[in-house]
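EI: anyone free to look at a 108-residue chain?
SC: sure, send it
EI:
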Amino acid sequence: MYHKNTQEQSITIKVAGAGDSEQVRRLAERDSAGVPCGELLVAMVGDQVRAAISLSTGSAIADPFHRTAELVELLRERFVQLSRTRKRNISGVASTLPAASLARTRST
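SC: here you go
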């Protein structure tokens, strides 16, 4: 979770939880969009969800009644960071699986 205090209110970037679903749904309505599919990363200002991005597709929604361009940019930057981490973890697991399988085969 990323948390930043501004002069106005705090900004928090986090993975959306079950308690955020109603705010995300209302956000999508205000943005005249559907809720992005998959796991979501949200940008909160104070206790309000102002923007969200799908960790599956990268599609974003934002509150058109507030200044959200910078929030969406923060979400996109975090999305890229998380995508890189996930790719490294997946490729790391994939490269170790054959060796682990081979070791089990030799021991039996």
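EI: The chain has one domain: 2-107.
SC: 👍
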